[in-house]
Specification:
The protein is an all-alpha fold. 71% of the residues lie in helices and 0% in strands. The protein has one domain.
Length: 92
């Protein structure tokens, strides 16, 4: 039941992470290049520049998603007293 109630918290955390990630990537790319970040839909784009932009953007989003998910779970636990997930990783 706790996991089901956590779903809205997780969705909200993901949206916040996405917004923050977009702004952070734009700011960081502005330090790297004066042009807007390359996009896969652009026909005239250099492969190394596209790969760099995608790698930076992916790293930013992955880190922020993990941090906001963890924060949402800790907040949920503080409010409800129930942890919405596994207690520990499965042993190998």
């Amino acid at each position: 039941m706790g996991r089901l109630l956590f779903v809205p918290f997780g969705i909200a955390a993901g949206l916040v992470a996405g917004l923050i990630g977009s702004k952070l990537f734009e700011q960081l790319w502005g330090l790297i290049d004066k042009q807007e970040p390359p996009n896969a839909e652009h026909r005239e784009i250099e492969w190394p520049k596209l790969v760099a932009a995608l790698a930076i953007e992916g790293a930013i989003f992955r880190v922020l998603k993990g941090l906001t998910d963890r924060g949402a779970r800790l907040t949920y636990q503080r409010v409800t007293g129930s942890w919405p997930g596994e207690e520990a990783p499965e042993p190998e």
